[in-house]
Amino acid sequence: MKALEEKICREGKVYPGNVLKVGSFLNHQIDVPFMQQIGEEFHRLFQDEKITKVLTIETSGIPIACMTAVCFNVPVLFAKKHQTKNLSDDCYCTEIMSYTHGNSYQARIEKQYLSKDDTVLIIDDFLANGCALVGLMDLIEQAGAKCVGCGIVIEKAFQDGGQKLREMGVRVESLARIIRMDPETGIEFID
Amino acid sequence: MKALEEKICREGKVYPGNVLKVGSFLNHQIDVPFMQQIGEEFHRLFQDEKITKVLTIETSGIPIACMTAVCFNVPVLFAKKHQTKNLSDDCYCTEIMSYTHGNSYQARIEKQYLSKDDTVLIIDDFLANGCALVGLMDLIEQAGAKCVGCGIVIEKAFQDGGQKLREMGVRVESLARIIRMDPETGIEFID
After folding, report:
1. Is the pLDDT of residue A84 over 80?
2. Per-residue pLDDT tens digits for A89-114
3. CATH class name, domain B2-181
4. What is the DSSP string of B112-131?
C-alpha cells in the first residue's frame, strides 16, 4: 500500500536494533482517518470471506481492528495480555513469547465470545517473529473457529515470522513489508 | 442514550461489589457498529467545540475514542499505562490510583503529540471515582492544551467521580448514568 509506505518513510523513525517507531500514527497517536483507509484495504483483500469476527491483541492492534471491523460490520474481540478482575475464569489461554520485552505472557479470551461458528480475521500492527499471531491462531483453534488469515500493517520481512506463517499455509496480507532498515540509510520495502 | 441503557440491561451482568461486566460489547468483545452510534452521539454533544485531538487511556477507552475521532476527523492519542520500549523518555507523566486493582500506576504520553495548540476531548468507557480522568486532565494541563470535557459511556453515578469533576467545572457527558445496581434487582439509571 503505497500511501502507507510513504507515511512510514515520512513519519517513522528507525533506531539501532531494528526498532521502528511509528507512534505518530499507529501505536501511540493514531491517525484515525488514515486507519480508515487501512481498514478499507483489509476489507478489499478479505471481502470474499464470510468474516464474523475480527480478532486482535491489546493494545496497538485495537484501533486497526476496529477500523477494519467497521467495513465488515462485525464485532472485534481482543485478547487480553494483562490480568484483570473484569475477565472471567472461563477463558481460552495461550502463552506468547515477547522478544521485544524479553519475557512471555498469557493471552486470554473469554470462551463465550468465540465459537466454532465464527470465521475470524486476525489483525495486528506489526509482524516480526510471528509469536503473537501464532498465539491468536491457537486461541481460534481452541474455540474450534475458522481463521481466514492475518491482516498486518507493517511486516518486518527481515525477520522470519511472515515466512514461517506462509509456509504453514496461513494467508498473511501485509500492507507494508520492510526488507531492510537502518538509521543511516533509511527504510527499504519489498512487494 | 436509550439504546445504550437497553443494551446494558440486556447484556450487562451485575456482580457483588458494584461490578458491572459489559465484555460483550464494550471492553473485551467490541460491538463496533454500536460504538459507531456512541461516537456519533459524542460528536453531536461536542460538535461546537473545535476539537483537534481525542485523548483516552489504554485499553478499553481506545475503541470508543477511535469511533468518536472518526466523526471529528481528528487523531486519537492514548496514554500508556504499561512501560514499553517504544515510548521515548520525553513524556508527560501522571500517577493514577486504581481502586479496582488496589494500586497506582504511571500514565504517560509523549510530549511531541500534545501541545498548547490542541483542544482535547477526553473519552473513556467508565467513570467511577474519576481518578483516570483527573490524571488525563493533568497530562493536558502539563502540555498547556485545552480540555473541552469528558465523554463517558457508563457513569457509576453512585460513586463520587462525576460529582467531583462537575464541581470542578469540567463538562462531563455520560451516555448512561447508573444510580443503583444489584445482582438481584438489576440496574437503575438517572438522566
Report:
1. no
2. 899 999 999 877 789 999 999 999 99
3. alpha beta
4. GG--TT-EEEEEEEEESS-H
A50: which 3 cell numbers? Answer: 464470510
CA distance B170 to chain A (A): 24
Q: Inter-axis angle of helices A32-46 and B61-72, to 10 degrees?
A: 100
Amino acid at B108: R
List, in sequence order, every residue forming a beta bridge with A152; answer none if it has no partner.
A124, A174
pTM of the model as a whole: 0.96
Task: Report the pLDDT value the prediction gives residue A106, as an integer from 0 to 100.
Answer: 95
Report the residue of A32, A34, A120, A125 to disrupt the B interface, i.e. the one with the largest count of B CBs within 10 Å: A32
Cα maximum dimension of chain B: 49
Could you say which of A19, A76, A113 has the minimum Cβ distance to residue B63?
A: A76
CB of B13 less than 8 A from some CB of A: no
Give every CB contact of residue B165 below 8 A, 6+ residues apart in sequence.
B127, B130, B133, B134, B150, B172
**CATH topology assigned to domain A2-190:** Rossmann fold (3.40.50)
User: Residue A189 belongs to what H/E stretch?
Assistant: strand A186-190
How confident is the model over B62-112, as pLDDT tens digits? 999 999 999 999 999 999 997 766 677 899 999 999 877 789 999 999 999
Q: What is the dihedral sign for C-alpha B134, B140, B141, B145?
A: negative
The rounded Cα B2 to chain-centroid distance in angstroms is 19
- Residues of chain B contacting residue A74, judged by C-beta atoms under 8 Å apart: 32
* Residue whose cell numbers read 505472557: A105
C-alpha A94/C-alpha A82 separation (Å) is 13
Torsions phi, psi for A77 (to 5 deg): -125, 130
Helix, strand, or coil (residue A118): coil
> CB of A176 within 8 A of CB of A1?
yes
Out of A19, A33, A66, closest to residue B32 by CB: A66
One-letter amino acid at B115 equals S
